[in-house]
Write a structure and sequence with these properties.
single chain; about 325 residues; Cytochrome Bc1 Complex, Chain D, domain 2; two-stranded antiparallel ribbon; two-stranded antiparallel sheet; about 55% helix; about 5% strand; disordered C terminus; binds heme C
Length: about 325
């Protein structure tokens, strides 16, 4: 049986079928095979040419056959060819789901009444609608049993699960996107890999002024707990990124170092240098750093407080 599918559908369908098979079978990592291995482009070009060649050959075979036919056979052949190509399966399917009565049979379902010539057909409910209706009933029963009788889970639990999952995703994302940190989002890095990367940055850029052990030289001592510009991770990061006070010699490093490198070197300083005793420590400069995020210890209230206040006021009064 000869297919009636026209060539301009046949060629692309076969072409993309072969392309799809090729992509499926060739393991090319993230990229499609025809980018990863340019030779496959040549292969696909050959496939295309062969498909076109086959079409041409079929065409000329048909032509030769046609010429050798009798007149009568020729007309029959043309007739069968000119029958428009129809999508039988699709048409049947459409008829089935809409359940329409063909116009010739409408007489069977016309209702009696007649309003000034306007009449009514008693069509069946369209099957697609009926199926969906049954589906909602089945869905409703399953839902009722699952959530109202067996109390599988509720919205609160679902919400908490989603938040927990999102939190994990954020953690994973942060691991891959360390480069996105800035002074407001930077956190103390504790991974050994980050610390050793920070050490390398420190040794390559900072030892000239701060000494390898952080004892200080041109720059201040980084090992003591006194800081000129603040000793929290965010403050140290800002100092490194923006530089110190004008004219002191600490330049802004944000042009030279990537954000993640500044976070690493800041973490390295705070964890490996601060708190150690360098060989030649420079005298502490700045102020004793108290982390503002750690809550201050409550001073226990003393019972004698009020008395002291009274005494005080008396003293003032006497003066
Ligand atoms: C040219 C010398 C020089 C170099 C190189 C240098 N610094 Fe400094 N650094 C200084 C000086 C000087 C100060 C004091 C700035 C001020 O007083 O405002 C300072 C201050 C600092 C502070 C703040 C200290 C405090 O007490 O608040 C940190 C943190 C710091 N530097 C880290 C680094 C890091 C990290 C590098 C390498 C990427 C580096 N420095 C490279 C000279 C230098």
């Amino acid at each position: 049986m000869r297919t009636n599918i026209p060539w301009w559908i046949r060629i692309p369908v076969l072409f993309f079928l072969i392309l799809g098979l090729m992509e499926y079978f060739i393991d090319s990592g993230d990229k499609p095979a025809f980018i990863e291995y340019p030779i496959t482009q040549f292969f696909m070009l050959m496939v295309l040419l062969i498909l076109i060649a086959i079409e041409l050959i079929l065409n000329s075979v048909e032509n030769v056959m046609f010429q050798s036919m009798t007149k009568e056979a020729q007309t029959r052949y043309l007739e069968s060819k000119s029958k428009a190509w129809e999508w039988e399966w699709g048409k049947n399917f459409w008829k089935k789901i809409t359940g329409n009565k063909p116009i010739e049979k409408e007489g069977e379902i016309i209702l009696d009444h007649n309003y000034d010539g306007i009449r009514e057909l008693d069509n069946n409910l369209p099957p697609w609608w009926v199926w969906m209706f049954y589906a909602t009933i089945i869905f409703g029963v399953i839902y009722l049993v699952r959530f109202h009788i067996f109390k599988d889970y509720d919205q609160d639990l679902e919400y908490e699960q989603e938040v927990a999952a999102a939190q994990l995703e954020i953690e994973a994302y942060k691991k891959t996107a360390k480069g996105l940190v800035d002074a407001s989002t930077v956190e103390l890095l504790t991974d050994a890999a980050d610390i050793s990367a920070g050490k390398t940055v420190f040794e390559n850029n900072c030892v000239a002024c701060h000494m390898a052990d952080g004892g200080g030289g041109i720059g201040p001592n980084l090992a003591d707990d006194h800081w000129i510009l603040g000793g929290g991770i965010k403050e140290v990061f800002t100092t490194i990124s923006e530089g110190g006070r004008d004219g002191k010699g600490m330049i802004s490093w944000k042009q030279t170092l990537k954000p993640v490198e500044m976070a690493q070197v800041a973490s390295y300083i705070l964890q490996e240098i601060t708190g150690t005793t360098p060989a030649n420590p420079k005298a502490p400069e700045g102020e004793l750093w108290v982390d503002p995020n750690v809550p201050k210890q409550e001073i226990p209230e003393q019972v004698t407080d009020s008395t002291i206040v009274v005494t005080d006021s008396t003293t003032v009064a006497i003066n």
